[in-house]
Amino acid sequence: MLKAPKFWFSEKNLAVFFSKILFPLSVIWKFFSKRRIVNGKYEEFIIPIICVGNINIGGSGKTPTTISLAKMFLENKTKVHIISKGYKGIIKGPKKVNETDDAYGVGDEPILMSKVAPVWVAKQRRNAIIAAIEDGAELLILDDGFQDPSIKKTLSIITVDAEIAFGNRKILPSGPLREPIPDALSRADILLVIGRKHQRERFMKSIDLPNELNVFGAEMKVVKSDIHLDKAKFVAVAGIGHPEKFFNSIEKFGGEITKKFSLPDHENYTPRLLRKLKKASLSNNAPLITTEKDFVRIPKNERHNFIFLPIKLKFSEELELINSINSVINQSFK
Fold first, then answer.
1. What is the extent of the structural domain holding 247?
2. Sheet containing 256-262: which strands, arranged edge to edge?
3. Which of 247, 216, 173 is nearest to 325 (CA)?
4. pLDDT tens-digit series, residues 209-237
5. Do 63 and 190 fall within a single domain?
6. Residue 30 forms part of a structural domain
7. Bridge partners, 262 (sequence order)
8. pLDDT tens, 44-75?
9. Contact predicate 115/145, CB 8 Å
10. Could you tell me which residues are beta bridge partners of residue 161?
11. I need a surface site. Which of 29, 165, 208, 324 has the fewest CB within 10 A?
12. Do residues 163 and 263 both lie within one domain?
């Protein structure tokens, strides 16, 4: 995936100009996207399916949300499996991710999620769903797939980054949205707003929401580890949806970034890139620090040159959230 254009998240005159130029293409995208969703087959399956998706392109916290949800259900003794298309992985599937798999084969996010729960990857989600059910799954979580019209979801959760929100609120390619906000929210059961409390409050004041939509909050937290950030110098590398959020996290805890490398989301760590990063680390006399998602894309024989900053998503109202989810599931599977 390429880096998100800066004009998607800016109100400057030049950004507005670029957005207006691309507006005719956005009209075409909106037409075909809506037709695809309206005319979907929406195949039903015999177990509940929770979809964790988003409205905008790029990082909004889908995968951390999926991981945290899976942990919640596993703690309640529910056999939950995760379904992923394995973005940028070469395997067509269906395949159950195991510890010998790598990001090149199944994608980076399935590797991360497989540390928590069984993960199935397939370019056709239907095939992964069938394989998971045959393997004994009682509940499925789709990591992405909100706009996939081939599968009927029992419950849909939309994640949104409270700080970035929906950018300029324009449809692709004029902006980051896959579809109009009202259309998406009308199909969702839960909106999960991710960010610090003041960011979530500011976001809620900026948007009109359907009365029937349940809204919950969450926040990304740095996991306690042996990494000491305070007053330490780093060369920071991030190939995620919004690299600046990773850099801000390091600086928030007192770390000093001597050089930053913002890579496209899911970027492969090629020999040439690795040489460049190691050279920067040497010249700045600072270790390389990256995200856990980046770390699993780095070849195993090169990982000793990096440290990663572990993070997790913490729900603000965990009990209320799981009760809301169970209520919808119980109504659908009486």
1. 233-309
2. 256-262, 233-238, 288-291, 306-309
3. 216
4. 999 999 999 999 988 777 888 889 999 99
5. yes
6. no
7. 238
8. 999 999 999 999 987 789 999 999 999 999 99
9. no
10. 194
11. 208
12. no
- In this structure, what CATH number is given to the domain that contains residue 147? 3.40.50.300
Residue 100 token pair: 């010998």
* Residues 191 and 250 grouped into a single domain: no
Please say whether the dihedral angle defined by the alpha carbons of residues 236, 312, 220 and 129, taken in this order, is positive or negative: positive
In a domain, 5, yes or no: no
d(CA 52, CA 32): 22
Give the rounded distance of the alpha carbon of 190 from its chain centre. 16
Give the C-alpha separation, 222 to 312, whole Å.
Answer: 6
For residue 31, tell me if it sits in a domain. Answer: no
User: How many structural domains does the chain have?
Assistant: 2
Q: Give the confidence band of 152 by pLDDT, cuts at 50, 70, 90.
A: very high
Same domain, 187 and 250: no
Kindly state the tokens that stand for 238: 């991030």
DSSP category for residue 230: T
- Sign of the CA dihedral 209, 165, 255, 220? positive
